[in-house]
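Run: sequence + 2-(butylsulfanyl)adenosine -> complex structure.
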Amino acid sequence: LEEEHPELVSDESPTHAVGGAISTTFDPVEHAVPMMSLDNAMDEGELRAWGDRVLRGLDGAAPTWVCELKFDGLAMSIRYEDGHLVQAATRGDGKVGEDVTANVATIADVPHELSKPTGSDIPKVVEIRGEVYMRASAFERLNERAVAAGDKPFVNPRNSAAGSLRQKDPAKTAERELSFWAYQLGDVDGGPEFSSHADTLAWVGELGFPINEYVRRFGTIDEVAAHCLYWQENRHTLDYEIDGVVIKVDDPVQRDLLGFTSRAPRWAIAYKFPPEERTTTLLDIQVSVGRTGRATPFAVLDPVFVGGSTVGMATLHNREQVAVKDVRPGDTVVVRKAGDVIPEVVGPAPGNRRPRGSAAWEFPDDCPSCGTK
Ligand code: IVH
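>> structure
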């Protein structure tokens, strides 16, 4: 894959692991309560359709909606017994994750001992679920250190957070300055009854966890939609990456009424931001040759920050795509990237002023790797 898509090669790649620095041997952990995923709403229409389904499921009773940012990190379940941190596990397939306790214990946001909340005791068992992430500022510091040490920079905060959690040596993880937002409870034995998600979050905050400051409650789906569009436009004002807004029904009784599908709750949805697009100059079109001999054209770009990382190369898929898109070196082109998805050249930018005399790109007749006809 890396040979065919050179733009995908990252420092986190197993092909770059030296001396087993990245471990593949984390013990499996069976989740006492499965870690479910979320259904997605890809645009405002899908969000409103979900809102209507919830209303129908509640026989027209209007719920209070809670909106949280959708943090672009890694889901984690952190288990406390009698107030002591005993285990941290990744989501894995939702049923079985990996034990990364030693690494998560190095995160400053994660308490080793819970604080006693006002009005309730520390429960016998409580699992705090949330997202491990890397702040943009920590990511920049990490990359400055990597470059100073002569190493290749990391691709984006999410990949560096994932790589940091998979270090065998927790001292390495500690250097990476990871952070954590709590947003959900897992297994609980002995906790208080909550009458809203907002109360739950306030209680989790009292236990000692950071709760994001942009949690908002709304009475109408119109307000929810406006909130989603606000964050779509303003996502880059934050010191951490978000890829959407998660909307949850606030009332636990209404949540029980709505229930779950096989993979996700019906009472929550992830409004996903559309892929980000930027314009830049197409410097060159080159061809990479994979192990199987397959030749893939790719774009060499004037590096541009899009979708959370700086992109200097982007796939052009195959010769037909280059012909259909008719992009030529010197063109101003639109580059698109959604999260970890492969960056691609969409086509010439509107208003592109093509250099005079540029010709349509032609696929080379000779193999660029070995010169064979
Ligand atoms: S709630 C049962 N809240 O999104 C619902 N998830 O696509 C459990 N995520 O695996 C998830 N921010 O890693 C929830 N504020 C948030 C979130 C959030 C990010 C991630 C989480 C989950 C994925 C689902």
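>> summary
Residues 44-57 form the longest helix (14 residues). The longest strand covers residues 276-289.
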